[in-house]
Design brief:
The chain is mainly alpha-helical. The chain is about 65% helix and about 0% strand. The chain has a two-stranded antiparallel sheet with strand order 1-2.
C-alpha cells in the first residue's frame, strides 16, 4: 500500500529554487575571481620580467618602478579586504595574527620599493651604473614575491595558515627560521647596514642572514669590510637567535615574563631540549638562557684581555692586516664570543682567525666556547649538578648514558682528528708555522671542523685526503640540544654500536654497558640517511651550476648542510644559482634533522593488519 503524498510547503519550494539559482552565480563569481587573481599575478610577473631585463635603464626602470608604486595602493586594499562569504575568526589572537602577517607583508613590499628608488637615485648620480644592477634586480624579485604572498594570503588566509603551522612543531620550526632569515636579509640590505650602497644585494644579504640564523658562518664577502656596525649587530643577533633556537628563545621570554606556555608548545619544547617533564621546563629554559649569557660574557672578557697583546684588532676595515677589520677591541671580543658559543663561525677580521694561529690564549678560549656550545645544554646541566655535588663533598650521581656518549664521542673525535690533521698537514697547510703553533692549529681546527667554522690555516691548501676526512667530521657535527649542526655525535655512536652488534652477532646494540633501544637506533639511521641523501642532491646540483673541483664542491655542501661554515675559498665566487643552492642546504641542515627527529620521536601507530614477514638477501 503506497504512502500518501505530502505536499511541499511553499516556503521550502521557494528556498530550494533560490539555492538552485544562487549556486551557478556563486560558481561564476569564484571562477571570475580565480581568473582575476591569475591575471593579476601574470601581469605582475610580466612587469617584473621587463623590470629585471631592463634594470637601471633609466628610461624604462623609472616608469616601471612608478607603475609598481602606484599599483601598491590597490594591492594593499585588496590584501586587507576579506573574501566574500569568508568566515571571520573569533577572538583577539586570530585577528592579531592576521594584522601582523599583513603588516609584515606590506612593510616588506614597501621596503623593496623604497630600496629600488634608492638604487635609481644613486644610479642617477653615478658614472657607472653596473654596481647597482644586482641590488635593483634583487628588490624587483622581492617585490614580486611579497605581492604574490599578499594575494595568496589575502583576508584571513594568512591567519589560518599561521594557526595551522602553530599546531605542527616541524612546520613551525621551518616557518620561524625561514621568516627570520628573510627579515634578516632585508635588514642586511639597508643602506645603514652596508659600507657601500652598491653592496646592498638582497641575495647576498639573504645568504649572510641564512648563514647567521642557521649558525653556519659561510659568507660571500668580508663581514668586517662590507657591513657597518648596524649590519654586524644584525648578524650577531641572528646568530644568537639561531644558536638558542627561535622556539626556545621565544618561550624563554614568555617564562621570564611570568606567563604560562600552552600545553602543546610545552610538550614540543620538552622533546627539543630534553627537559624531562613539563614541570622541569621552566627551570630548564631559564638555565639555557643563563648558561648562554654567562659563557658568552666570560668568553668576551677573556678575549678582550688576550687581544691586548694584538693591537692590530683595533684597526679598521681599510687596514690590510689579517687581524684588522673590527675597528674596536671590545666589539670584536663580544662578536667573536657570541659567534663562537653559538658555533656560528663569523669573524670581523679579514683572514678569520689566521692572524691568531700562534696565540694560545685566544685560540684556546674560542675552542673552549665552541666545545661548550656544541656539547649540548642537557650535558652542561648534568656536569653542573655533578660538580656541585663534588663541591659539597657528596657522592655525585652517575652521568647518564647520553652525557657519557656525547662527552666520549666528542673527545675521541677532537683528539683523533687533531692527530690526523697534524700528521697529514705537517708540511702542507701547517708548514709555515713553528712546531708548537702546528700543534695548536691542528687542535683548534679539529674543534672548529665539526661545527664552528673558524679557521687558523688556509683550508684551500689542505691535502685532498684531509678535505675528505673533514667532510665526514663535519657531517657528524655536534651533540643534541646544542648550538651546532650535523647528524649529532650520539647518532654516530648509535650507528657504530649497531654495526658492531651486527658483526658480533648481538641481538641489539650495546654501548657503555647499556643496551640501546631499537627506536633510538632507527631514529639515528633515519636522520643519517636523510642527511646523506640531501648532501648528495645538493652536490649534484652545485656541480651543474659551478665550475670547481668536485671535492671542493662536496666540501662546500657538507659545510653548509652541517652548518659548519668552513670553505676552501669558493664561496665568494659562487654564481647566483650556486648561492641559492647553498642557502637551501644551510636551511635544510638546520631544520631538516631536527624536524625529522621530532617527527620520528612520536609513538609509532599500530598497523590495523599484521603483514606476513619474508626473508630478503642482503649483501
Amino acid at each position: 500500500m503506497s504512502e500518501p503524498r505530502t505536499s511541499t510547503p511553499p516556503e521550502e519550494r521557494t528556498s530550494r529554487i533560490s539555492l538552485l539559482d544562487v549556486a551557478p552565480v556563486a560558481k561564476g563569481r569564484a571562477l571570475a575571481q580565480g581568473l582575476g587573481l591569475t591575471g593579476a599575478l601574470v601581469a605582475a610577473l610580466v612587469i617584473v620580467v621587463l623590470d629585471f631585463g631592463l634594470a637601471i635603464h633609466l628610461w624604462a626602470s623609472i616608469p616601471l618602478t612608478v607603475l609598481q608604486s602606484v599599483l601598491a595602493l590597490p594591492w594593499i586594499s585588496f590584501v586587507l579586504r576579506a573574501e566574500p562569504g569568508e568566515r571571520r575568526p573569533r577572538g583577539w589572537l586570530p585577528k592579531l595574527r592576521m594584522l601582523l602577517a599583513h603588516f609584515v607583508n606590506i612593510g616588506l613590499l614597501g621596503f623593496a620599493l623604497v630600496e629600488k628608488w634608492i638604487a635609481l637615485a644613486s644610479a642617477l648620480h653615478a658614472s657607472d651604473v653596473a654596481p647597482f644592477v644586482s641590488g635593483y634586480r634583487s628588490f624587483s624579485v622581492v617585490a614580486l614575491v611579497m605581492a604574490t604572498l599578499g594575494i595568496l594570503g589575502r583576508g584571513h588566509r594568512a591567519q589560518r595558515f599561521l594557526a595551522d603551522a602553530a599546531d605542527h612543531p616541524a612546520r613551525l620550526m621551518v616557518l620561524s627560521f625561514g621568516v627570520t632569515a628573510f627579515l634578516g636579509g632585508f635588514l642586511l640590505t639597508l643602506p645603514e647596514a652596508v659600507v657601500r650602497v652598491e653592496d646592498a644585494s638582497f641575495l647576498d644579504g639573504l645568504f649572510t642572514a641564512t648563514s647567521a640564523v642557521c649558525v653556519t658562518g659561510l659568507a660571500v664577502n668580508d663581514v668586517g669590510a662590507t657591513y657597518t656596525f648596524f649590519g654586524e649587530a644584525v648578524i650577531v643577533v641572528l646568530a644568537q637567535i639561531g644558536g638558542l633556537g627561535i622556539m626556545v628563545l621565544s618561550a624563554s621570554f614568555v617564562v621570564l615574563a611570568g606567563r604560562k606556555l600552552r600545553v602543546k608548545q610545552s610538550a614540543v619544547l620538552v622533546e627539543m631540549i630534553d627537559a624531562g617533564s613539563l614541570a622541569a621546563l621552566r627551570r630548564t629554559l631559564i638555565a639555557i638562557v643563563g648558561y648562554t649569557l654567562l659563557f658568552e660574557a666570560i668568553g668576551a672578557l677573556l678575549l678582550y684581555a688576550f687581544t691586548g697583546f694584538h693591537p692590530e684588532v683595533m684597526r679598521g676595515p681599510d687596514d690590510p692586516h689579517p687581524i684588522a677589520g673590527a675597528g674596536d677591541r671590545a666589539w670584536w671580543s663580544v662578536f667573536t664570543a657570541v659567534s663562537a658559543f653559538c658555533n656560528a663561525g663569523f669573524c670581523l677580521s679579514h683572514a678569520n682567525l689566521a692572524g691568531f694561529a700562534t696565540s694560545w690564549p685566544v685560540c684556546l678560549t674560542i675552542a673552549a666556547l665552541i666545545t661548550v656550545g656544541g656539547i649540548g645544554f642537557p650535558v652542561i646541566e648534568e656536569l653542573r649538578r655533578h660538580a656541585w655535588a663534588r663541591m659539597r663533598r657528596r657522592r655525585p650521581d652517575r652521568l647518564s648514558l647520553h652525557a657519557r656518549i656525547a662527552l666520549g664521542t666528542s673527545a675521541a673525535l677532537t683528539f683523533g682528528v687533531a692527530a690526523v690533521v697534524l700528521v697529514l698537514e705537517w708540511s702542507q697547510s701547517l708548514g709555515h708555522l713553528p712546531w708548537h703553533a702546528r700543534v695548536l692549529a691542528s687542535l683548534f681546527q679539529s674543534v672548529s671542523m665539526r661545527t664552528a667554522g673558524f679557521n687558523t690555516i688556509d683550508l684551500g691548501a689542505m691535502r685532498a685526503v684531509t678535505i675528505a676526512i673533514a667532510c665526514v667530521v663535519m657531517l657528524i657535527g655536534a651533540s643534541p640540544g646544542s648550538t651546532g649542526g650535523g647528524i649529532k655525535t650520539t647518532s654516530f655512536a648509535a650507528i657504530c654500536a649497531e654495526v658492531w652488534a651486527e658483526l658480533r652477532g648481538h641481538a641489539s646494540a650495546r654501548l657503555l654497558d647499556r643496551q640501546l633501544e631499537s627506536g633510538v637506533v632507527r631514529r639515528a639511521m633515519g636522520v643519517t640517511f636523510l642527511s646523506l641523501a640531501i648532501v648528495m642532491i645538493g652536490t649534484f646540483v652545485l656541480l651543474m651550476t659551478e665550475e670547481h673541483e668536485p671535492l671542493r664542491v662536496l666540501f662546500e655542501v657538507c659545510s653548509a648542510f652541517a652548518t659548519t661554515g668552513l670553505s676552501t675559498g669558493i664561496t665568494s665566487s659562487l654564481t647566483p644559482a650556486g648561492k641559492l643552492v647553498i642557502i637551501v642546504m644551510m636551511f635544510a641542515g638546520r631544520t631538516g634533522p631536527l624536524t625529522l627527529a621530532l617527527a620520528m620521536a612520536s609513538e609509532a601507530r599500530r598497523a590495523p593488519v599484521q603483514l606476513a614477514s619474508e626473508r630478503v638477501m642482503i649483501g
